[in-house]
Amino acid sequence: QVQLVESGGGLVQAGGSLRLSCAVSGRTFSSYAMGWFRQAPGKEREFVANIRWSLGSTKYADSAKGRFTISRDNAKNTMYLQMNSLKPEDTAVYYCAAGFGFFVSANRYDYWGQGTQVTVSS
Fold this sequence. Notes:
This protein is mostly beta strands. It has strands at 2-7, 10-13, 18-26, 33-39, 46-52, 58-60, 68-73, 78-83, 92-99, 111-112, 116-121. It starts with a strand and ends with a strand.
């Protein structure tokens, strides 16, 4: 089993920044890909970014490119999402996830955190 715990969400004004963290514990996950997803009220969960834990290669949704940066710290078993230039439309619950493939589809991920709320005011 893999346990994921997100933190770092909060309320920020448009144009501001937040850094989300996802602490990972449980079985070894060097072969995993880790991802960030978000879900706004009334909308489906959508892909934000992912990273291969061992290689560090990344992929971003178009909405995140140039503003968000995904990274991981192997020593701390923690994944991050640095979010800059935040917009009101970024408001959502943000989830981290782990799976065996480098996918953008939420249903390809096996483990999920509980989510952290990000609210961007205009």
